[in-house]
Predict the structure.
Amino acid sequence: MSADEIKVKAEAKEAKKANPKEVTIDIATTQMLQKAQADGCETIFDRAVTMKPCNIGEQGTCCKICAQGPCRLPLTKKQAEGSDDRKGLCGATPETIAARNFVRMIAAGTAAHSDHGRGVTEVFLAAARKETNDYQIKDTEKLLEIAPDFGVPTTVLVDGVEQPRDIYEIAVEVGEAAMAQWGQQHGELPLFKRAPEPRYELWKKLGVIPRGIDLSDGWAGAMTATDLQDVLFGTPYPIQGEINLGVLKEDHVNIIVHGHEPLLSEMIVVAAQSPEMIDYAKTKGAKGIVLAGMCCTANEILVRHGMPIAGNYLQQELAIVTGALDAMVVDVQCIMENLANVAKCYHTKIITTNPRCMIESGETTHIEFDEHHALEDGMKIVKAAVDNFPNRKPGAQMIPSAKEKMVVGFSYEAINYHLGGTFRGSFVPLNDNIINGRIRGVAGVVGCNNARSVHDSAHLTLIKELIKNDVIVLTTGCSAMTCGKFGLLTPESAKVYCGPGLAEVCETVGIPPVLHMGSCVDNTRILMAATQVVKAGGLGKDLSDLPAAGAAPEWMSEKAIAIGQYFVASGVYTVFGGTLPVTGAPKFQKHLFEEMEDMYGGKWDLIMDPYEMAAKMIAHIDKKRKALGLDKAKERVLMDMADRQKLDAA
Amino acid sequence: MSKMVAFAAIQGAYNIVSKAEGIYKRALEQYGPEKKLEFPNTAYYLPIIYSLLGIPIKTIGDAKKAMDVARRLLPPHVKNFNHLPYLGPLLDSGMAAIFAEEVVEAIRYIDDPDFYYTSEVCDPESGKIWLGAAEDTVFRKRGVEFVDGSAPGFAAIVGAAPSPEIAKLIAEEYQRRNLYVFMCANQAGTTFSEQLIEAGVQIGWNTRLVPFGPDISAAVFALGFANRAAMAFGGVRPGDYKKMLIYNKDRIFAFVNALGEVNAEWAANAAGCVNWGFPTIADTDIPEILPTGVCTYEHVVANVKHEEMVQRSVEVRGLKTVVTKVDVPVSYGAAFEGERIRKDDLFVEMGGGKTQATELVEMADMDAIEDNKITVIGPSLADLGEKGGRLPLGIFVQVAGRKMQPDFEPILERQIHHLINYAQGVMHIGQRDIAWIRMGRPAVDKGFELKHIGQILHDMFHKDFGSILDKVQVTLFTDKAEVDKMTEKARAMYKARDSRVENMTDEAVETYYSCTLCQSFAPSHVCVVSPERTGLCGAYNWMDCKASFEINPTGPNQPIEKGECLDPKLGQWKGCNDFVFKASRQKVSHYNFYSMIYDPMTTCGCCECIAAMLPGCNGIMTVHRDYTGETPCGMKFTTLAGVMGGGASSPGFVGHSKYNIIQRKYVAGDGGLLRMVWMPKSLKEELREGLERRGKELGVPDLIDKIADETVGTDEASVMEYLQKVGHPAISMDPIVG
């Protein structure tokens, strides 16, 4: 082998790694990817280069639900043009197969959220019954607001006089009612009634209201999780925060909580801020403790405590690559097994806390979360991190400087408050400015990162395009983090990126043009916000009447499919990017992309290009505006006495 | 930029609340917590705090709760970068400022009892300019104008104009549009109110230019007035802050004009006003807030030229105002109704005892008169020379039209009083043959002549009654012999009319009329007016309603076929019940016309009088809204109105007009006028003639003297003692209940 040949071969081998400048638009990610590659540490980005997705699975037409398969039925050019006679062993057509696979993804995604909800409900009940000292009923206002929805009275008649009931008594009943949703065998779930009446009636007519929570997400499992988390930990209100790997500090003990549930992380927040642990960190030579979050756990502690976020889904390995991370604590969902492999290259301790998510690879520590000893567990975890601080490898540390400020925490309660204060809070000003055209419409942009597409790029491009066209964006999950990293969650960004109408409204209220509403489970906050908009009036009677659309441009998790489906069923035009496992089944795809609109008023779509995605979302918004008669300018009405006498009784 | 507004307003609110806390602490130490804290002669405690927070403040000690709320509402200051949203906090800070200011203004009434002048009109010569909180009598009287639409809204003017002339320009333009102007605050010591005085404009409630106070904190009197109106007339319950503020946004067309430099404390107050849906329109270059939502349209509009201020303001508020166009050389509008002619300004006086002045409206044949023919017979103003003097006057108006009826003559005739009064510099008192007109020199200098009285009547009759009349001809007599001749004819007509009205009975007609005139304010209230039960506001009798229906067939007065009589004694008809059920939006299914004990008619906040049962006296009492004292039922008029208003039917109480007391069907189902055991003395005097007549009819000629009043006592025991002493018929009647 000549020297040249060796060089070519080496380059070919070299080429099997990701190009750090091309796979992401986030500078911190690029820097850490370069470092990982220099450190000889393989990440998801590299494997995305070396391993291609299965093109049959990608089309949704691989059936492995019985032992006679897997039957693989890819869509060929010939079949696409007409003579489609594909069948599995049992005769299942690709349409049947893709539909079943799709439904199974929804079921699995829903199960994840409902499981989350159940975990929260258990802790909630423990707190309500005062079985634990670590959790309290914190947001009594929210408890009183949700109690009637669970059929729990908030007042009691004492000698004929209506008196407020004991908070913990209400909480126990709410907790029990919430818990009874799991395994419920008859009737319908209570929170579906929160939807605008025509929507509820439509669901009833279509017979799609679930009798039990187990496989029902948006208006059930996830919503219960959000509700009860708010009561336990406080409903989010706008708060300042920081995001990106630059939030880690070289001279501090760095801990990242990663995953989805706030139950344990709330306790870790307490532990990490305790003087006891801070002093302990100092004995180990650290100046203090940085607790940062990753993925939805990050969103949960960010929106309630302003704790910093280290990054989104595709940055989880890279946080370890900094060499400055002393512990990564994980619970469930979106946790890459490879964390343990990356950790091997550095000193980071990976601590698993949930039996649902233990890691087979590498070396990990398991400290199982128990709500009855939650704070104790939290202290144990923080102590383990502090103990690991002296083990940092000399010379292996490099923390990117990139970090961005942001304002987050827009629950629908917070939006309601901020649009009118304590006395006039309502969604009316939002509706009013949609009606008068300053705001063209509302978009929910949510979802994951996906290693098959350029990290953060589609989120950012789509969202910038939307706000440029005066569409206000509500965001959650990893999408929200992208916005944070690129400054779209600062109020100052409105002037820079928005169309004039939206910029003016943002300036009036003092908000960013993109509102961070929380974690992925908190997508239910978007449903509730949309419901509030309908109830505030002037924009139709149902969610499907609103000039609104949804998107998940970089989705990857089956939870995203579950969320997509509950948005479609709630009447929202929902666009996914990258891929959708239905492309091998044209009839089923047509069902999702067209026929569902006739049933629900909402439908699925798949669009690769974020600019085209924005254009179609805006076209949909304009279609709805036209249907509402908002395509023409509204005249100023000057009222005289006769007009006033015609006012409805208040 | 809203951020700058938020920044300033929040800072201003901190200043205001901190200063208020200092004043409160000092007052608490100086006077003690038990010291009474109030706006004298007003109900609803400190009305903004009471209406929004539901806290009734009676003493200095009570105010602590409101001060605490104000402090709690103060939001964090707005940071320069990456700031939190500020619209909600901005509105909260404004509210905090206003709560604090209301307490401060109430403390001022203790600190300096003479600071505010307790009157409807100012006395600038004695330096008594500032009127402070409207007393309840003033508030009720003026509030009704907001209810019936004669005042479409109010402009709260803060600060001062660049010159008295500009102040006058703005104020008079508002007057022409019938708006009230509420004035507060100063610009480096100069106030809009004093500028108006300097420019020779009369200020006070009577001219709708109300000088509340020289400080920005006096803004609470304007907002308090609005909230009192919502409670008294709109039936909004105290503490229901959401409904209260939305009510204001939708129904009370008010706004702020900020004149001159806007400081942080003004900004806080402006933010407070936005909670009410009242926007701010400024003449300076302040940051604008244009997106809509909390207010109906823009929130803050800046840089408005003074000559455009009024038009721009009403547009921003979404209000349609109409300037009454009458072909006379002086300004014309309801705001000039209450203006007085000072002795020094007087040019000519007609009637008022020294000369005869008589008014008559008579229906004529279409062909007999000529429209817009105005003739003066006798000396003109010019004949009085430079000094002016006195003249007799006969105003003879002939009207014709296909829908005109003789029954409408007195209705038209009654309009003469206010129609003439609306002219700036012209005053009208009385009616019929006791009319009294004064014209001021400034009006005459502007070219106002006698014929203009005719012009006003011609133009306004056409405007207001165009659907029933086609021609109006006016003859003005100033020749004594002619006046006497006309007066003689007029007296004969008055007599004939009176006996016709008096003889009209409920039984004699099949049609009653609804009156929902006040539904813009009291949405569930509905009056039904019959010949023997005039509207409880005193404004509309059966004949008025009938005419009103003719004039505007889709208006607030609709005919009701009374239908089957369900209870002749208590006065209940099926047709009326059906109508009431529908018009009250299913809130009221039935009521009785002639009983205050069994399902009485609903009562709105505009009633002239409220009757209450006095079980210990086996009778009833009534009190009118001008009487501010205690009554034997234990409640003042305002308290009664607060309990009753807003369209409720409250057994044991009923609202009614003054005139209704001397109508034959007055509480006839409960025993009638003979049950009346107590009335305020002033009301007795006002109705003396009628009470004496009714007493005679009922066989108790001295009934009026047997009815106790406040000189006898204001508790049931002393009333009862008096009744026994004078042998009042009520004590020997059947038990009032049971």
Q: What stands out?
A: The longest strand of chain B covers residues 393-400.
